[in-house]
Design a protein that fits this description.
Number of helices: 10
Low-confidence stretches: 1-17
Mean pLDDT: 90
Strand order of the largest sheet: 4-3-5-6-7
Distance between the termini: 77 Å
Order of helices and strands: HHHHEEHHHEHEEEEHH
Largest sheet: 5 strands, mixed
Number of strands: 7
Radius of gyration: 39 Å
Shape: flat
Strand content: 25-35%
Helix content: 40-55%
């Protein structure tokens, strides 16, 4: 029995190994040399001895992938457009990374043979390709830098690409990125019309109001918007967002109650048909003739509904300062609301409908103080205002 189990395990390991080899072979046959290389590397990193059959395939995939990449570089080496220069740079990087993975695995032995791989120092070629690509990008960005807002945004994107691949290309690169970002921005001045201060007496709410127009734009989807609640000299504002806090309505805490009668028939046994002598009567099959015996059970539920809310009504008006036109007026509402349903009962719980069970499991809630409701209503209003300004098409 032990030998049979051992044979099954060996066959399973063999099939797994063959499956990995077959996958690599198929990738090479179909010209997917990178896939073949990655598959072999993965297997050998996992276990060099167990997956040693991958080593000849790894060398074949390595040589063919390198040959293909160098041929592609040679084909476009005299071109000076951005796409070609980027392709050359990425191909040299790919060649370098590929051989680094080989170096980490060496030595590689299979069937008493040491497999050697051709290793080339691509440092100089990578540096030159990076320089050419960076120069090409910079020359594209240069005429856009002091141009229109849209061109400044294009220049910013190009300079960011240079910063990613070659952060030391120019000593003033970071400064130029900041400048193009600045020229590409739409500046929004935000104002607050507050009509609710008299209704708010707590320090927390008043502090929120104090910083209500202080909006962070770093989390906005639109990175070309900067919002100021205080005007900065030498900045021309493109838009004005006016936030109106019009009224705050508090609905005081209230508890509504409702009494609900519950009634249900439940089976408690059987009623048997009897003959004149008091014996149970049977049907043609010999079964006793009987009907269910039921009793009526009752319960009384008292449901309590706790309600309290505060609603802040207002709006945002967005205006194009260059044209003087109102782009849109959007009503907004901030709300803090408590609704809690709980209940008690008397009588037999089996008489109670399932739909009331959740309320009966709930507990009476503690009503939050008014200032907590004011705080939450202000916060939800501000969140909605920030979301609206973030999603606005300027």
């Amino acid at each position: 029995m032990y030998k049979i189990k051992l044979s099954i395990v060996c066959i399973s390991l063999l099939l797994t190994s063959c499956g990995g080899v077959k996958k690599t072979e198929n990738a090479i046959s179909s010209g997917n040399y990178d896939q073949a290389f990655d598959n072999a590397i993965k297997k050998l990193n996992k276990d060099k001895n167990k997956n040693a059959k991958q080593i000849p395939l790894l060398k074949e995939a390595y040589n063919k992938a390198n040959e293909r990449d160098l041929a592609e570089i040679n084909k476009i080496k005299n071109k000076n457009d951005s796409q070609s220069l980027q392709h050359i740079y990425k191909k040299y990087m790919q060649l370098d990374v590929r051989q680094d993975e080989i170096i980490l695995l060496e030595p590689l032995n299979y069937n008493n043979k040491i497999y050697s791989f051709k290793i080339i120092d691509y440092t100089g070629k990578i540096a030159l390709a990076k320089k050419k690509y960076s120069s090409n990008l910079y020359n594209k960005a240069l005429p856009l830098m002091n141009n229109s807002k849209e061109n400044s945004r294009r220049a910013f994107k190009i300079l960011e690409e240079i910063q990613i691949i070659n952060p030391n290309y120019r000593t003033d690169l970071n400064t130029q990125i900041l400048e193009t970002k600045k020229r590409g921005l739409d500046y929004v001045f935000i104002k607050l019309h507050n009509n609710i201060t008299a209704q708010l007496q707590d320090s927390i709410s008043l502090n929120i109001l104090k910083n209500f127009t202080n909006i962070r734009t770093s989390d906005f989807n639109n990175k070309w918007i900067e919002i100021h609640d205080k005007k900065v000299t030498n900045i021309i504002y493109n838009y004005q967002a006016t936030v109106f806090l019009e009224k705050i309505t508090a609905i005081p805490e209230k508890v509504n109650s409702q009494v609900i009668a519950q009634e249900k028939d439940i089976q408690t046994g059987w009623n048997y048909e009897l003959d004149s002598n008091g014996n149970k009567i049977k049907d043609a099959n010999g079964n006793e003739i009987k009907t269910p015996k039921t009793d009526k059970i009752k319960a009384t539920i008292t449901l309590y509904q706790q309600i309290k809310s505060t609603v802040l009504d207002g709006k945002i008006i967005l205006k194009n300062l260059k044209t003087g036109t109102v782009l849109n007026t959007t009503p907004l509402k901030g709300e803090a609301k408590l609704e809690n349903m709980y209940g008690t009962y008397k009588g037999n719980p089996k008489a109670i409908d399932q739909k009331y069970k959740e309320a009966l499991q709930n507990k009476k809630a503690q009503f939050p103080k008014d200032n907590a409701f004011n705080k939450f209503a202000l916060q939800t209003f501000k969140q909605k205002a920030e979301q609206l300004l973030s999603q606005q098409q300027y």
